[in-house]
Amino acid sequence: MQLTLIKKTDLTPTVKSYTFKPELPFIFEPGQFVMLKQVGAEQKCARAFSIVSEKDSDDIVFIMKHNPVGHVSGFLATAELGAIIETGAPVGRFVLNPADTDRVFVATGTGLAPIVSFFNSKNIATAPHTTIFGVRHEEDIFWADRLPKNSLITLSQPSESWEGLKGRVTAHTEALISEHPNAAWYMCGNPEMVSEVRAQLIAAGVEKTAIHFEIY
Ligand SMILES: Cc1cc2nc3c(=O)[nH]c(=O)nc-3n(C[C@H](O)[C@H](O)[C@H](O)COP(=O)(O)OP(=O)(O)OC[C@H]3O[C@@H](n4cnc5c(N)ncnc54)[C@H](O)[C@@H]3O)c2cc1C
């Protein structure tokens, strides 16, 4: 299917959001991703991007870490509005389990994409939830206004003036486990974070069936 670029926004110095108009209605489950590629490019040049659904919108939004030589992110960074990109069908099993009784969402960087999508899911209302979002510097924070009020933002390399949480998300996992002993965990971001938090959860006795993750 083809998507037409209708909006580009710089969210941080390294993260951009892209809004597209799909040629046909785009049906997906919040948390899923698609393979995007330039029109006519070989399949090996397709790259995975999580869908960020905008509430009450027919448009499709993605957030991308900018790579100037990226097959997809590099192309879109210099593409004009009206440019076309190809998408495969939505896929992935990183979706909310409606049977959860409590949820903790853990995201680093653009791993926030499917988590924000979850906030628009019909299943989000089935359980209370808490989010922890980790980035390096103040300037890397984006979409803080889209996070629920009880969300935590932690900076691994904050400036001296930062008065919020400090450290990587792993520094706060144990406190969250204590506060949410029966939660289902949904993690998305870089491989090291997912691997480390997963190990912390398993060591603390969290059931593997309650640990969901998407690795970027
Ligand atoms: C299920 C899933 C969902 C994902 N969702 C998202 C998402 O929503 N947002 C997001 O930002 N990412 C997401 N990712 C990660 C994303 O798919 C990869 O980072 C992908 O490589 C990005 O494509 P690109 O077009 O930016 O660059 P690519 O085309 O992959 O990179 C082009 C070339 O640049 C080289 N390169 C890559 N990084 C660097 C670097 N830092 N410096 C120098 N050269 C480099 C590579 O070797 C490659 O040859 C997701 C991954 C998965 C598995």
Whole-angstrom Rg: 17 Å
- Spell out which ligands are present: flavin-adenine dinucleotide
CATH class of the largest domain: Alpha Beta
Count of alpha and pi helical runs: 4
* Count of strand segments: 13
Question: Strands of the biggest beta sheet: in what spatial order?
Answer: 4-3-7-1-2-6-5
Q: What is the percentage of strand-forming residues?
A: 25-35%
Instruction: Give the CATH topology of the largest domain.
Output: Rossmann fold
- Average the pLDDT over all residues and give the rounded result: 95
Main sheet summary: 7 strands, antiparallel
Would you kindly provide a written description of the structure presented here, covering whatever features stand out?
The protein has four helices and 13 strands. The chain is α/β, with parallel strands linked by helices and 216 residues long. The chain folds into two domains: 2-87, Translation factors (Elongation Factor Tu (Ef-tu), domain 3); 103-215, Nucleotide-binding domain of ferredoxin-NADP reductase (FNR) module (Rossmann fold), CATH 3.40.50.80. The strands form two sheets. The protein has a seven-stranded antiparallel β-sheet with strand order 4-3-7-1-2-6-5. Strands 11-10-9-8-12-13 form a six-stranded parallel β-sheet, sandwiched between helices. β5 and β6 (60-65) form a beta hairpin. Flavin-adenine dinucleotide (FAD) is lined by residues 33, 47-50, 62-65, 67, 69-74, 92, 110, 113, 214, 216.
